[in-house]
Amino acid sequence: MGTSVPISRGRDRRVKAGKMKWKGYFKSNGAIEGAHRKGKELRSRVRELEEEVEKQREVIIEGAEEKREAIRQLCFSLEHYRNGYHRLRQAFVRHKRFPVMAA
Fold this sequence. Notes:
Layout: H1 4-95
Organism: Camellia lanceoleosa
Protein name: Protein NETWORKED 4B
């Protein structure tokens, strides 16, 4: 019986250590579940942000195309009025008489 006390104490320590280990496991398991949940939320948020970025990219592309179209129209108008100016100037120069200097 003298030896049973140290064995039971050793056994008690091992049992207690095992229980502590399981408590730590459950605590860390809860932390792991929380981390998985948080990871899932973050992945969902990333998907939402990627969709938002794609929508913004489309809006930017549409705006850039509208600007290019406006520039094309302005260039066309500018060329039209420039040609009109040149025709008017040519007509004016042809009909204008230059004074002759008398010596």
